[in-house]
Design brief:
This is Cytochrome P450. By secondary structure, the chain is α+β, with helices and mostly antiparallel strands. It has 20 helices and ten strands.
């Protein structure tokens, strides 16, 4: 060995040895001193647990993992951490008590980059812009403001009941029209008078295509962002072609209505609504970013409110078809408290405890957003001795939380009178700083429809050509929102006078 080489090793050898020890320390020694991840199913090298996450109803698999591994379950998805919370206590500990670090949203490449949803309020990262969006929404949907929207909800509820009476075979379309009409009027100032309203159909198409494209966390591009640069003709670029179709539908839904209100504001003919009020608040100094924020807030509130409201009401109808004894009991309470010649209003709510139990049981039986909206941890955290790394996607499994009771698949509203249960109304709207700001409006609208359906409508099983009853399958579509699959039923007014009562109420609205 030459003298120069010996000198080189003598001088640089210790440095090279230290450098060589870095990966040993990082990959071998450090994990031994760092607290362990929460328990979960064993991942495979490279892909993690992605092969164990089902495409349909993953909330049910996650709930099973909760029983096996505990209320905090850790999984790996292509090197990224995901934590699933399966109890109310853990969700409150992290999202409520530690909201300052658990209130961010994951950055979904497919939705944010390809679909153009980077301005939608549900996907805004936690920070000043998020707080601005929440302030916009709070002005329209806080508890006091929501009270002022009750006349609108009352009117549209009556239109829904009339639709059930006149064309009962289109009950699902009437539910969609109600859900769209209330939020469309609030956000864009536009009346929806038909189940074939073009803007409603446009929103439904955007929502359906979004669900069909798959949940964002299930898309490979979210874990390998470089895939967004694949050319369209590449073998694994199908997601880009699908995303463009979805983006076009979403853009149409968000842009057309926003532009119409913007033009009305410019001409001084804008109806009072959230979009016009926000645009007018900026005045002539409004910037492009301001407009994009207003557009995102209005579009997101419309989609979220319409889809979840329709889901809950369809679940209620399905439950009444399957459990006629529950409907009869609710009708008996309604007749005794409100009477048979009057329609219920929100002022009657406290006097109808069984109906309140029915509403809670509908939400417990089929929570509309079973996994909630995902959160992102902003810094490393320790919980119950377990290590949760920064950037972990954290999901509250609302399905598991609300099904943690005796005989969870049975529909039994009475359970809320006799058992100490988690209140679904305190869960389905989310947790902490990301809790749904439209919860007062949504809760009032759903209750009002359920109450008036109970008072006015008989809902029973449909019959086939031989006169035999057809029992619907209890089945739900997969996606962010867990809609019941289409089912047949028979709908009739409880009396011949119902239509006259509805017409009188519409002609003499209560303030």
């Amino acid at each position: 060995m030459s003298t120069s080489l010996l000198g080189y090793l003598h001088y640089y050898g210790p440095i090279l040895a230290k450098i060589a020890l870095i990966p040993i320390f990082y990959f071998v020694l450090l994990p031994r001193f760092r607290p362990s991840f929460p328990p979960g199913p064993r991942p495979l090298p490279g892909i993690g647990n992605i092969h164990q996450i089902p495409n349909k109803c993953p909330e049910e698999t996650f709930a099973q993992w909760g029983k096996e591994y505990g209320n905090v379950v850790h999984i790996r998805v292509f090197g990224s951490s995901m934590v699933i919370l399966n109890s109310i206590q853990v969700a409150q500990d992290l999202f409520d008590k530690r909201g300052a670090i658990y209130s961010d949203r994951p950055r979904f490449v497919l939705l944010n980059e390809l679909m153009g949803w980077h301005n939608a309020s549900t996907h805004v990262r936690y920070g000043p812009r998020f707080r601005k969006h929440r302030r916009f929404i709070h002005q329209t949907f806080n508890e006091q403001a929501a009270h002022l929207l009750r006349p609108l909800q009352g009117k549209e509820t009556l239109n829904l009941i009339r639709g059930f009476v006149e064309t009962p075979g289109q009950y699902s379309q009437h539910i969609r029209r109600f859900a769209a009409a209330t939020i469309m009027k609030v956000t864009y100032g536009r009346d929806v008078t038909s189940i074939d309203d073009p803007f409603v159909l446009l929103a439904e198409r955007a929502g359906s295509l979004t669900v069909q494209s798959g949940t964002p966390a299930a898309s490979l591009v979210d874990f390998f962002p470089v895939m967004k640069y694949l050319p369209d003709w590449a073998p694994m670029a199908g997601f880009k072609r699908s995303a463009r179709v979805v983006k076009e539908a979403v853009d149409d839904m968000m842009n057309i209505r926003f532009q119409m209100v913007k033009d009305q504001v410019s001409s001084g003919t804008a109806p009072p609504c959230m979009t016009s009020r926000l645009l007018e608040s900026f005045g002539k100094s409004i910037t492009f970013e301001d407009e994009e924020n207003v557009k995102g807030v209005a579009g997101t509130m419309y989609v979220a409110a319409e889809d979840t409201t329709a889901c809950v009401l369809a679940s209620f109808v399905l439950a009444m078809v399957l459990h006629p004894q529950v409907l009869r009991k609710a009708q008996q309470e309604m007749d005794q408290v409100v009477g048979i010649d009057k329609l219920p209003t929100l002022e009657d709510r406290d006097r109808l405890p069984f109906l309140e139990c029915v509403l809670k049981e509908v939400l417990r039986w089929n929570p509309p957003v079973p996994l909630g909206m995902p959160h992102r941890l902003m810094v490393d955290d320790l919980y119950e001795g377990y290590y949760i790394p920064k950037d972990t996607m954290v999901l509250a499994n609302l399905f598991a939380i609300l099904h943690d009771c005796s005989d969870p698949n049975s529909f039994r509203p009475e359970r809320f009178l006799t058992e100490d249960l988690v209140d679904p109304l305190g869960v389905v709207f989310g947790f902490g700083r990301r809790r749904c700001p439209g919860r007062y409006f949504a809760d009032a609208g759903v209750w009002l429809v359920m109450a008036n359906l109970v008072a006015c409508i008989d809902i029973t099983k449909a019959r086939d050509e031989n006169g035999a009853e057809v029992t619907p399958e209890v089945a739900f579509k997969t996606g962010f929102v867990r809609h019941p699959k289409s089912f047949p039923c028979e709908i009739k007014p409880r009396s011949a006078a119902i239509e006259a009562v509805i017409n009188f109420a519409l002609a003499n609205p209560r303030n």
